[in-house]
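Chapter summary example.
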Amino acid sequence: MEDIRENMKSFVRNYSLQTYNEDYNVKCDLSYKNYISVNGNREILKRLKNYLKSENIFCDGIFVTEFGSDMRNLHNHILMYCKNEKFYRIKSKIFVFWRKYGYSNIDQYNSSKNYSEYVCKYMNVTNNRNWDFISSL
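The structure predicted for these 137 residues follows.
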């Protein structure tokens, strides 16, 4: 099990570098103010991706969906690559979109902070696939 987790950490850490020859540039934690289903969560993340696309912001990356401590409320951890875009613009667009759904913490990605390991902490712990690529939404 530990080998799988280490492989996932490496995969997540290197996905953007191997796919786009550039590192992630945004990390997001997105939570909801109200209950939402897993399918509803995926739909809203898809809307976010499409909204950014409509604003001419290309984005891809990996998101992990987790249940809160009450095992009811969902939240997402996202490592995002946005091509040729200023961070402040991406942050503003995500914040404006997400405020109707809940709370956001949006930061510039810093590879030295090992956020990819934090994102992986609950990947594939349950039978539900709780992670995916933004591009597959």
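To summarize the output: The CA atoms of residues 53 and 82 lie 10 Å apart.
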